[in-house]
Amino acid sequence: MTTPVYQIDAFNDTAFKGNPAAVCLLQETKSEQWMQSVASEMNLSETAFISSRNEINEFDLRWFTPTIEVDLCGHATLASAHILFESKVIKRNLPIVFHTRSGELITRCNNGLIEMDFPAQTASPVGEPPELTTALALSPVYIGKNQDDLLVILDTETQVRECQPNFKLLSTLPVRGIIVSARADDERYDFVSRFFAPAAGIDEDPVTGSAHCCLAPYWQQQTGKSQMLGLQVSKRSGEVSVRIKENRIFLAGQAITILKGELYV
């Protein structure tokens, strides 16, 4: 039996922009080793695997980088919902309930965007790891840490854009990734960011939905806004709309299908 597989560019409506993710619609149970091998073969920052449940709009969802399984991934969740809606597996007026290692994630169409209901991952202030300053060659104005990542705030957008990390040194830090952010110069956006995760096999992720679960609470404290627009300024770039309600972060964006095929293994 073959497995349908798609490649989607998430958090952008333009081909070859945003963050590419592979999505596999599983027709039968597959082993963790098989899924990890497929993710390695796809060689994208994340490959998502969807299995249907008894309820028409409920699915199991898992995410793998080329090297490890991760607990939360925004752009591959967006890509997964996009395929289910686009292929008409789920009608656009219904929510999708994904069962994941981070609990239930509810995704729905909202004003032309796909909106995802994620848990907040607020960072708390921490001391500055000496390896971090050396690896970034910059002096942060704030450093925080949540369960998975370090949040590093810089003075200017230019510093974020021009940052050239030492990835080998960054990979020694005991975190999934490093979020680097600053206020946006362009008034259309509230903040800019980049995301580095060499320890997870990804030097730089193009657009990182899960990082915005940490960015949104921080920038809400700085701006007083509960709804904002972030721009991830990687080479591919992408926009992430964030809406904060209590301890939930609603991430929204667009996606476009790039290719579809079948796995024969």
Brief characterization of the structure:
This protein has helices at 32-42, 74-86, 130-136, 157-162, 167-170, 212-223, and strands at 3-10, 19-25, 47-52, 58-64, 69-70, 96-100, 103-110, 113-119, 124-125, 142-145, 149-153, 177-183, 191-197, 202-205, 227-232, 238-245, 248-253, 255-263. The protein is an alpha+beta fold.
Overview of the molecule:
With 265 residues, this protein is of the alpha+beta class. It has two domains: 3-119 and 252-263, Roll (Diaminopimelate Epimerase, Chain A, domain 1); 124-246, Diaminopimelate Epimerase, Chain A, domain 1 (Roll), CATH 3.10.310.10. Helix content is 20%, strand content 41%. The chain has an 18-stranded mixed beta sheet that branches. A hairpin with a 5-residue loop joins strand 3 and strand 4. The protein starts with a strand and ends with a strand. The mean pLDDT is 96.
